[in-house]
Specification:
Elements (H helix, E strand, L loop, with lengths): L1 H12 L4 H7 L5 E7 L5 H13 L4 E7 L8 H9 L3 E5 L2 E2 L4 E8 L17 H10 L9 E9 L1 H4 L8 E4 L5 H6 L2 H6 L3 E9 H17 L2 E8 L1 H4 L4 E10 L3
Helix pairs in contact: 2-3
């Protein structure tokens, strides 16, 4: 129970751009959302709720992805059904190529750090967080690793034009997801919400890598918000970015 409360608290303090996005698509007849790193769907639920408050007539298509197949999605399923959301969920991971990879779940905090490119399991952030927030956890099973299938946005959405929003929150694997989205982003113009998560020592390079990549396909940075709950007293820094396609 306390872990669910903790997750809700951290979600509350996490940055989001819901109001901006909801207003941007307030007059849409159909809204298509791709949520990569879905977990329990807090991003999509919050955005959809705000959109429906403004425009009750909009139809919504949601495509969500999360390799963690052990997540209880019953609550979101009820939300989707009650709001007549066309929701398709997949346990595929998204990346730069069609491959198989190892996916690691941090059992104490599966919403934070569970990823292909898992930089948190040996971090000071994780060690201190576990001591204070999960002191009775089983030290022998702090992680679970299994093989998953990885696909690309380019392959899965090649013939699905008109995606409005793509959210990428994959705990340090965002650049790879964007690499696998090159053709789609070059030919289409979804708004992007991208998380950059990295060890502090590498953060500037990771940030520049993504900014340069998106600038090369005419995406401009609209806003950025820092995850203060993650970076203040740790070796990890986490920032969310909002990008839109430039008309130039």
């Amino acid at each position: 129970m306390y872990k669910n409360l903790l997750y809700k608290l951290l979600t509350f303090f996490s940055p989001n751009f819901d109001k901006y996005l909801a207003n941007k698509f307030s007059n849409s007849k159909n809204l298509k959302i791709v949520d990569i790193g879905f977990f329990k769907g807090s991003f999509s639920k919050s955005l959809i709720t705000k959109v429906l408050k403004i425009n009750k007539e909009v139809s919504i298509d949601l495509y969500s992805f999360d390799p963690n197949f052990d997540i209880n999605l019953d609550t979101f399923k009820k939300f989707a059904e009650s709001n007549q959301i066309n929701w398709i969920h997949s346990n595929l991971a998204l990346g730069s190529n069609s491959v198989k990879e190892s996916f690691t779940i941090l059992n104490a905090f599966p919403s934070s750090g569970s990823s292909i490119d898992n930089i948190l399991q040996d971090s000071f952030w994780y060690k201190t967080r576990k001591i204070f927030l999960d002191p009775l956890g089983n030290k022998e099973s702090k992680t679970t690793t299994f093989e998953i299938d990885v696909e690309t946005v380019d392959k899965l959405f090649a013939f699905n034009e008109g995606v409005d929003v793509i959210k990428i929150d994959v705990e340090g694997y965002g650049y790879e997801v964007l690499q696998g989205s090159f053709e789609y982003l070059k030919d289409n113009s979804p708004v992007l919400q991208v998380e950059v998560l990295s060890k502090k020592i590498n953060f500037s390079n990771k940030e520049k890598e993504i900014l340069d990549y998106l600038n090369s396909i005419n995406y401009k940075l609209i806003n950025r918000k820092q995850h203060y709950t993650t970076h203040l007293f740790s070796d990890i820094r986490c920032v969310d970015y909002l990008f839109e396609k430039s008309s130039k």
